[in-house]
Specification:
8-stranded mixed sheet, single chain, 10 strands, two-stranded antiparallel sheet, globular, about 200 residues
């Protein structure tokens, strides 16, 4: 895990001890660069939210391409101050966008957060999601000083179980009937976490 020091912007966030630390810093793994969004990411990101194969277990907003671009512009403009950190996964070898990984929820009172991730279908089965999740979890635990990082997914999404387990997460529990699927049936949610 490598976070280059030269990528720090002017405005930054303070951690629990008052040390200045950048939100959504560039993170490098063996095969990936995790970086902030750019407007040029729109084609890959729009492919993700409109791919029916990816939407089987995740409900994406029904946005036009222009509307999604406005979301990306907002994420870019707020990146220095938004505690819901967001990264694009970029393949080092080709520069292609593999997917994205974000902090979805922050529970400040209990000092933990929830992280979600998506990988473009053509990159499935390569271990990229687990590689990114491990790096982001390590960043959040060690540099952001969260006590715990949580992930959750539909109980039917077995591939996501494997991602979390490969990234060193431990299964915490299960809550039934929390997801309404496209077929009109409900399924449960499985929770995993990684802590200090």
């Amino acid at each position: 895990l490598h976070i280059p020091s030269h990528s720090f912007p002017t405005r930054r966030s303070s951690d629990l001890y008052g040390v200045i630390k950048m939100l959504s810093p560039r993170i490098e793994t063996d095969r990936l660069i995790l970086r902030r969004y750019k407007e040029s990411d729109i084609d890959a990101i729009y492919e993700i939210i409109t791919d029916e194969r990816l939407a089987k277990y995740i409900k994406y907003p029904n946005l036009t391409k222009d509307e999604e671009l406005e979301c990306i512009k907002k994420w870019i403009s707020e990146a220095d101050e938004n505690k819901y950190e967001k990264w694009v996964m970029e393949l080092k070898s080709t520069g292609e966008v593999v997917g994205n990984i974000d902090v979805n929820t922050v529970v400040k009172k209990h000092n933990y957060c929830n992280v979600g991730y998506t990988v473009r279908y053509k990159f499935w089965g390569n271990g990229y999601a687990a590689e990114a999740l491990k790096a982001v979890a390590d960043h959040l635990l060690n540099n952001r000083d969260y006590y715990l990082v949580e992930c959750s997914c539909n109980e039917l999404n077995v591939q996501s179980f494997r991602v979390m387990e490969k990234a060193g997460f431990i299964k915490d529990g299960y809550i039934s009937n929390r997801r309404l699927n496209k077929d009109g049936k409900y399924s449960g949610v499985v929770y995993y976490s990684k802590s200090k």
